[in-house]
Design a protein that fits this description.
This protein has 187 residues and is mainly α. The chain has helices spanning 3-11, 15-24, 29-59, 62-76, 82-93, 101-121, 129-134, 144-159, 167-183. The radius of gyration is 35 Å and the shape is elongated.
């Protein structure tokens, strides 16, 4: 057979006729009953798997980490989580209003811990707080000595339970921590 003969032979088939003949053949009744039962089961199972996938994506942090954080940062021009950090800072600063020295001490300890955590998340290396502060660029925060003095006060609070701390001194220490958080763009 020549290629011309093969092409003419293939062109002689009419797909509509072949498909019509296949469609007209009867399926056995048992097969129709099985398909009648199996179709809804497979549809329900497929729907269940799709809903399970949506649920898992919503419950994991993948979607938030992949898209939401970037969109929020782009639209607000601030790092993701600044609202949470601001609320946490306000809660720390309100401890001054209580008038109790124990709350002052707690405010200083929490502010120091918060700044240490933020320095770590911002990528400043160092095992101790002092090492992280020394790695701060002077363009970000100029008065490192004042920050180290505030941290030293925090260490005194931890080491000596009789360490005296007054409201004005606490405000000054907290303002130092606050100014670093602002200069990092976190408040």
């Amino acid at each position: 057979m020549e290629p011309k003969d093969i092409i003419s032979y293939i062109e002689s088939f009419e797909p509509q006729v072949i498909f019509a003949q296949v469609a007209q053949t009867e399926m056995p009744l048992v097969m129709q009953q099985i398909l009648g039962i199996a179709k809804p089961i497979f549809w329900a199972f497929s729907l269940f798997l799709i809903l399970w996938l949506v649920f898992l994506i919503a419950k994991t942090d993948w979607l938030r980490l992949r898209y939401v954080e970037n969109i929020v940062q782009f639209l607000t021009f601030k790092p993701y989580g600044v609202k949470r950090l601001t609320k946490q800072w306000d809660r720390i600063f309100k401890k001054i209003d209580t008038g109790r020295e124990t709350e002052y001490k707690l405010a200083v300890i929490e502010a120091d811990s918060l700044l240490d955590e933020m320095l770590k998340k911002s990528g400043y290396s160092g095992k101790t707080f002092e090492e992280k502060v020394k790695n701060l660029s002077p363009m970000i925060f100029k008065d490192k000595e004042q920050l180290l003095k505030a941290h030293k006060n925090r260490n005194y609070i931890i080491a000596d339970p009789d360490f005296k701390l007054e409201a004005e001194q606490t405000k000054k220490i907290l303002e130092t921590y606050r100014s670093v958080l602002i200069s990092l763009g976190l408040l």
